[in-house]
């Protein structure tokens, strides 16, 4: 008897959910069929306020072309951008925010539009191993926001986010350097490519949390090059390794790679011929 009652309750709940869903769909269909722009606008705001952000954005997309030049255009356009943002469609949100601050450079919401244009894109950045076009686009938008509003209440948040995005790019460069290092002498001398990549990354991201690892791959690659060098070039390469070791320990005396680079230094010291220093 209890089991029958339980099944009956579940069935009732499913039925209610179905009715609510059907009612909601009918509401959207009704709005779509309406020819009254202001009724649609009213529903778009209702959808937004009740968390139906996709419906709000969809409805606003339909009516905005007819609002161009009207007093409603500014607020409706910003509402569309926020609807896409709340729906987590950050690419569409950035397009709408960008449209807003372009059309209303001195608008009521221009400062926020510039901020959220970059902030939204930053919520959807790819894994460091993937293409970083979105990361770069987010950084560009945030930098523009800071250029226009350096004293904004959101300026510090934008700066912190910019630094975080830079770390994403720095990590990608570390992964590239590591890839070259792991390839070693396969087909080409990939250690040279590793050194170039890591050194460029250190210049581009001098304050990165990945800087020690970048520098490590320079030292490690110089070690591999010296170790596998032809005799006539080995002495110079050993000295290059020794010099880079000193640069490394000056900056990271207690770093996590210290023991490893110490071994590379010992190898260099053991094999450097002091009589060859003049060459």
Keywords:
279 residues; 12 helices; single chain; mainly alpha; 76% helix
Characterization of this structure:
By secondary structure, this protein is an all-alpha fold. Helices cover 76% and strands 0% of the residues. The protein is built from 12 helices and no strands. Helix 4 packs antiparallel against helix 5 (90-103). It starts with a helix and ends in an 8-residue tail after the last helix. Mean pLDDT is 90; it is low at 15-23.
Quick recap:
With 279 residues, the protein is mainly alpha-helical.
How many DSSP-defined strands? 0
- Low-pLDDT parts are 15-23
Using the alpha-carbon principal axes, give the shape: elongated
- The gyration radius over C-alpha positions equals 30 Å
H/E topology pattern = HHHHHHHHHHHH
- Describe the main β-sheet briefly: none
Number of helices: 12
Structural class: mainly alpha
Distance between the termini: 99 Å
Kindly state the mean pLDDT as a whole number? 90
Q: Roughly what fraction of the amino acids lie in strands?
A: under 5%
Helix content: over 70%
């Amino acid at each position: 008897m209890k089991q029958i009652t339980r099944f009956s309750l579940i069935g009732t709940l499913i039925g209610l959910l179905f009715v609510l869903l059907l009612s909601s769909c009918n509401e959207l269909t009704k709005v779509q069929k309406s020819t009254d722009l202001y009724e649609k606008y009213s529903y778009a705001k209702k959808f937004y306020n009740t968390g139906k952000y996709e419906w709000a954005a969809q409805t606003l997309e339909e009516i905005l072309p007819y609002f161009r030049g009207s007093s409603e255009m500014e607020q409706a356009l910003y509402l569309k951008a926020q609807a896409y943002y709340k729906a987590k469609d950050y690419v569409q949100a950035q397009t709408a925010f960008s449209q807003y601050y372009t059309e209303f450079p001195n608008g009521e919401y221009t400062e926020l539009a510039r901020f959220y244009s970059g902030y939204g894109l930053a919520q959807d950045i790819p894994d460091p191993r993937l293409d970083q076009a979105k990361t770069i686009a987010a950084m560009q938008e945030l930098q523009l926001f800071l250029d226009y509003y350096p004293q904004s209440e959101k300026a510090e948040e934008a700066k912190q986010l910019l630094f975080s995005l830079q770390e994403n790019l720095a990590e990608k460069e570390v992964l590239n350097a590591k890839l070259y290092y792991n390839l070693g002498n396969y087909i080409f001398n990939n250690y040279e490519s590793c050194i170039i990549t890591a050194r460029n990354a250190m210049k581009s991201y001098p304050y990165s949390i990945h800087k020690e690892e970048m520098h490590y791959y320079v030292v490690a690659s110089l070690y591999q090059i010296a170790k596998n060098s032809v005799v006539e070039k080995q002495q110079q390469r050993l000295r290059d390794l020794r010099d880079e070791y000193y640069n490394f320990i000056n900056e990271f005396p207690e770093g996590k790679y210290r023991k490893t680079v110490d071994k590379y230094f010992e190898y260099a010291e053991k094999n450097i011929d002091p009589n060859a220093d003049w060459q």
